[in-house]
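Our preliminary data section would be incomplete without showing what the modeling component actually yields. Below, a chain of 470 amino acids is followed by its predicted structure, encoded as tokens that our downstream tools consume directly.
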Amino acid sequence: MRHVLLRRARILARVLLGVVLFAVTLAGIGLAGVTVTMNDSYPSAAPAALAGGWPQPARAPAGRTVVAVVIGSTGSVVTDVLAPYEVFARSQHFFVYTVSARRAPVALSGGLQVVPDHAVADVDSGAVPAPDVVVVPAVVQPTGPAEATLRTWITRQAGHGARILGVCAGSQFLATTGLLDHRRATSFWANLDGLRGSYPRTDWIAGQRYVEDGPITTTAGVTSGVVGALRLVERIAGTEEADRIGRDIAYPGWKLDGPTTIATRRLALSDLPYGLNAAFPWLRPTVGIGLVDGLDEIDVAAAFELYAGTSFAAHTLTLAAHPVVTTRHGVVLLADPTGTTTAKVDRFVVPGLRNLDQVDPGLRQWAGERHLGIDLPHAGRAAGEFSFDPVLRDLARHTDRATAVTTAKFTEYPAAQLRLAGGAWPWRSTLLAVLTLVIATGVALLPAAVTRLMSRLPGRGRRPAAEPVS
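Predicted structure:
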């Protein structure tokens, strides 16, 4: 009986060890994949300085309402930053600048890098006008020590009377400062339950595109920053100005005094492409995103957000004829000059342009030497269509429809108007997931296999012969 119990205990131990090995292997490969994805999405390598120095930021014209768009030192979501920036910058009523803890390159999601116009010390010293509005995007480490300077600065600006616009998970950044205590606020739908637990002094509201509480406005996920910014334009510059900008940008369903309610979303099985693409990035294509001076900020955001920043469907490489590119309203972006890059690119995309003649000759030459076509996703942009629509269609064609739909959901973008064509499912990441399951299963079976092998070795697994009775 004792021998039977011992044998069963050994079997149970091997089974438990196999389960643990399976889980550890699966989690380890998935964690490694997510780490690769995040490192790609928020690149750290950048020149510390540029020969001749960074471009000089514009000076504020007298009489403008000053808007400071914060960029986290640890990285920020690209659309959270660039979309509100463009909304305000389209109006002559506003002067907009970007600000971070210091004036050095910082990462935006999707693989883009930006040089802030100013450090917070420039504002504190009076060299730059103090903001009337502060836009706070999602940052990578909202509670970490690397963002302490920005948290203190945002709190100080609010104390001086600045309006605050928290975009997407930027509301967590605000919540850490205490500015949302005893206020109503919203955030990205997938974060709300966690925020309720971590910041119970805030009344977290679901199903609203934006929530206003006194001088603080917070928005739902990612693209909701467009609508939140338009609301502040309406508050500050008037309904005519907000209506003009809103019609030009053409965010789906937006209109003055329109409803702010949106669908209350939850995680679903159909969101699996989001996790698969994030956890299994290997063998994904490299998309070169070509930039030229004068592109609209939202067009740039659409490319980096949708091809990589939220879809995780590709690794992106920022390319331009020169290392510094300036957007239509003055955001300074960094790129790999095509004359020096040796990276392999599977596909070359230039956002924001309608025809090839608008592409920089240096980019055209670079693509031609590598026998790459130049794809212009915005060339197919219909009148009255928001910038994300043609890029989502392009993502579906070149990746798959499921990834495009999930990406729209995770950017909280209304995509019911889209007609998507392309593959049905992300088979690359799915096959990698299956391969990982096979590997994890093999690792889990190792203890049993080793035990069985050992039992078959000469002299092992046999009972000793009984001694003769004298």
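The longest strand covers residues 94-100. The chain has 14 helices and 18 strands. Preliminary results of this kind motivate Aim 1 of the renewal.
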